[in-house]
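Key idea: predict the complex, not the pieces.
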Amino acid sequence: MPKPFTPKVVTANDLVEGDVIYLTADDGWTRDMREAELITDEAHAQIRLLHAESLPLQVVGAYLADAKQGTDGPVPTHFREDFRRTGPSNYFHGKQAETAE
Amino acid sequence: MYSYSDFDAAFVAERNRQFRAQVERRLDGSLTEDEFKPLRLMNGLYLQLHAYMLRVAIPYGTISARQMRQLAHIAETWDKGYGHFTTRQNIQYNWPRLKDVPEMLDALAEVQMHAIQTSGNTIRNVTADHFAGAAADEVEDPRPYAELIRQWSTDHPEFQFLPRKFKVAVSGSEHDRAVIAFHDIGLRIVQKDGQTGFEVVVGGGLGRTPMIGKVINSFVPKEDLLAYIEAIVSVYNLLGRRDNKYKARIKITVHEHGIDDIRERVEARYAQIRPTFEGADQQMLGAIKSQFALPKFKQAATDAYDSRYENDVLFRSWADTNLTAHRDADHSIVTISLKKHGATPGDASADQMRAMAELAELYGYDELRISHEQNVILPHVHKSDLPAVYDALREAELATANIGLVSDIIACPGMDYCALATARSIPIAQEIANRFDELKMEHDIGHLKIKISGCINACGHHHVGHIGILGLDRGGVETYQITLGGDGTEGAALGTRTGPGFSAEEIVPAIERLVEAYMDHREGPDETFLAAYRRLGMEPFKAALYEDARAEAA
Ligand code: HEM
Ligand code: SF4
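Result:
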């Protein structure tokens, strides 16, 4: 039996900055995972991924990452995505530093 | 030190010009990512978890003060004020922006550095014993040969698309500090009947299928080195498996065909190509060698060192731990630890880079080395200058006396930076170092190498750690597997797995139990962890890891 579909967000790296970005429901890109579109339908997920892949001037390496609904929006279900939305643990660099400003 | 010829400089300038144009074409949409990616990788530019990463080669680990200053300048101007020195004698910048990379490459070219062939299926940065030219136990400085190989391999038309990456390491000493048994080709300078030549080892590697290299030829006369290496790479280029990335390294080719078959093929190829090497390489080598001439060593009394050593315990501890015998009795090799307890192994801030550059200028004949153990070396320091060097290092927070000890850990970037990682490695290294610092035990424990990788690619050399730690993702949880008994030196051995892995919370106490077991069982302070493991086998360590933990939990 195929695995049941679990909710996803579309994520990628920004072409110029290289940092982590997420696709929003209104076709924009955000650096805050909570503002990402949480996709609960498999067919829709493929369409959204194709959309992201059609924007090579903005994004690199788009893929679907597992996520779930949190209190303020989508949150990761795996530690890799948790690090991607936060930044490294050895320095206060990356997203954690930017959102603190 | 080697200085670029006009040809080298023109080549790097042209490559930088091309890459600048490629970046522009990527940014204006004329190149897709699929087209651009191989081009950026050819220039050492990766895309990692949080940002791009630029990998810069430090050929055979040797750099000048001016080059080190430029690395500091680059870190401050286009990165976050630091750089990460790696086991491959490279420096990695973790935060460049795509459009700044051409500027960074031009800044590197100003000091004769580049990022070419630091990625891709090419012959990578040739690494060398970091004590080359200075070590007391050396037959001959291996770096001129490393430079010759670098010149021959850079942009070599036949070898730009090998089945897989290809790594060469050289050493000129009996004692192997260059991990030569774990490279695609490992070279060791040896003497036979009054002649100098190379013992050539092939097919070593780490990664998902670790292998100890095998001797393919116990003596290749030094004038035939390039022809012989070319024969090996050429045989591999045809025979290596291009159908499966995981079977494409030469270690698998050697494993599948057997060393005798490979030797025969190499000999046949060698017979063909040797006549085409008509001595031009030997003329080049002659010219290169003159650039590696030893500095004229200072002559002075060493009393200042002796009295400081007598009177200052901290200095003595540092001297006992971080100095190595130099070929000149009045000089020492200074290893600068980039492993301050709790810091990221291999990281240096721009200020620290400048402090090291200044010491090299003032006291070190303008030379620095990067070691595969992620430390920096001042290869030649007169003993009378050691007190001043030590004081300046303390000032820069670079005087940690822990070389070869439990906190001198190799750790790959792991999931804090690396897109391929299955778990983090840096925080584990930080916690282990902090823990043993708290215990104030590490000088009693003595020589012990811990090496950590964040996935099976083994960039952190965990297979050859006396204690190796491999970070894995087990059902969505970071899990750490331990191996014991690995050795990357002349006693080459791969570590053996102890059993089930440990969670991030359990791993540091587990390492502590291992070390306690060693302290309980060793015959005396002279028996190192590795020696004790070899004598005792796995059992007492396994018991400490698993049974004691169970007993405590019960
Ligand atoms: C962060 C980006 C990095 C990536 C994407 C990367 C990728 C890889 C891969 C895929 C392998 C396995 C090759 C194979 O078995 O065929 C490997 C091996 C290796 N890498 Fe890395 N690596 C990275 C960083 C580093 C760093 C920071 C170091 C030095 C600290 C390093 C040193 C090595 C070494 C020593 C090996 C094993 C030797 C061998 O080639 O068998 N790498 N790397
Ligand atoms: S071992 Fe794995 S996690 Fe560590 S740097 Fe290499 S590829 Fe990345």
